[in-house]
Amino acid sequence: MANQAKPSSGTLKSLTQALKVKPPARQELRKYSWLPDVLRVEGSIISRIIGPVLTVTAFATAIATANQVYHKDLKLTNNVVPLLSVVVGLILVFRNGTSYDRWAEGNRDWGAMVSNIRNLARLTWVDVTPAPNMSKAQHESFMKLKGRNAFMPNAALEGDGLRSEKIRMLKLMVSFAYAVKHHLRGERGTDYEDYKGVLVEGFDRFDEFGYERLLDSGPGDSYGTNGQSSGNAAAANNSRNLIRGVGTTYPDAQTPLLSNDHSTVEFHPYASNRSLPLPLVIAHELTRVIMKFKKAGCLENIGPAGMNTMNAMVQGMIDQLTAMERVAKSPIPISYSIHLKQCVTLYLFALPFTLVSDLGWRMIPIVTVVAFTLMGIEGIADEIEMPFGTDRSDLPLDKYCQELRDEILYMIERLTEVSDEVDLFVDQ
Description:
By secondary structure, this protein is mostly helical. It has 12 helices and 6 strands. Pfam families: Bestrophin_2 (PF25539). Keywords: Ion transport, Membrane, Transmembrane, Transmembrane helix, Transport.
């Protein structure tokens, strides 16, 4: 009986070094407090609205000075302001509720995506095993097959064994989460610290036009990216120049997400106007690896239903990505936000005229408190309506991704595979 081949030290070492980063400490649940939160400035909305509030205070001070010092009769009837206050209140409630729904939906979709990644990682780690009737020689022969239709040309399952390919698939899942984070933020390219050691080889070649899909051919393998014989060296060089953008004008690829300039993935070298975002390319590779496991007989113990479940999890990851894109690229209409600010400003500027004759100088702090309340509600709504950014109140996607990396590392280093305990090779 033969034992399953173990991965090379370099494969696991690179992942281990990349993932052994101390995650940020979780915030402990604290007891309910009132006074500390009332006096707290850090984390509040004060810094965001202090300018507009002081502007209203200065205007109220000017009205009070004109009335009390220069004896100007600026009194305004109090019959109109209550009607305006009802309208402003309804608009603010709707604005705040809509923004929180967007924040909650983003959080819910991200959690569903992480759940699919965790389940798919568990199934891959435990249920992907060598075919029951495969000899060691057949297994090693399969592991050396060239993946000519792979995203990486000549991507091969090297002699490290099936476990190395499973580790690669787990790294793809972690890369998917990081790619989604950067995609939602409109951050292009792969030159980010959190990609190092996680983004698998072949996905780290990114320039302003997208991913380069090279046409390099190994010995005895003269196939290009489309599985067609390259034959002519000059044609191959021209293809490489086309991929790299030499002598080629590419149309601008703009993202509808958080920024206005986002280069997407160049998936086909001969059609520069066709592109895919990085998360979808990673999802394509995940599906391809699952099919490779199926053809090798590595999913026999879970059957067709198990394979369908794994594909459904990848599909679910894409569904959650699409749902988060809907939140990211569909902000609340700017006309609605502008009209809300105009109504709140009109109400706050009309309020001093109705209070100055009865309250005098005392009107100033009252108007300031009202301005702080109303502008604070609108400021909170504006801050949380786009939950995938880097504001203080946005979702902590960096922490979520780091925790997922640590979970996958723990699975690789500590959790046992079935194949570690049961020798599934049959000598022939």
